[in-house]
Automatic annotation (TrEMBL):
Record's protein name: RNA-binding S4 domain-containing protein
InterPro entries: RqcP (IPR025490), S4_RNA-bd (IPR002942), S4_RNA-bd_sf (IPR036986)
Signal peptide (residue range): none
Domain RNA-binding S4: 1-60
SMART domains reported for this sequence: S4 (SM00363)
Length: 81
């Protein structure tokens, strides 16, 4: 799954367009490397987002099969580090 789709599907960001803008700005890293929107994520990847207040890191636990998941199931798909 593309990193921009994954970020919006697991409710890390609200919309896919926001995720795409963040990737274009160069503030999203996958396994320590700057990512493009088309970068595929796999189970076990670490995604870091450089927010103004400081970086936040996430670990991919599962890849969702649907467009979005309920917020109550977020912990099954992503772990905040």
């Amino acid at each position: 799954m593309r990193v921009d789709k994954w970020l919006s599907a697991v409710n890390v960001v609200k919309r896919r367009t926001i995720a795409t803008d963040m990737l274009k700005s160069g503030v999203v890293y996958v396994n320590g490397q700057k990512a493009k929107a088309s970068k595929d994520v796999k189970v076990g990847d670490r995604i870091t987002i450089e927010y103004l207040k400081g970086p936040r890191s996430y670990e991919v636990l599962q890849i969702p099969m649907t467009k979005t998941i309920p917020k109550s199931q977020k912990e099954e798909y992503v772990k905040e580090l």
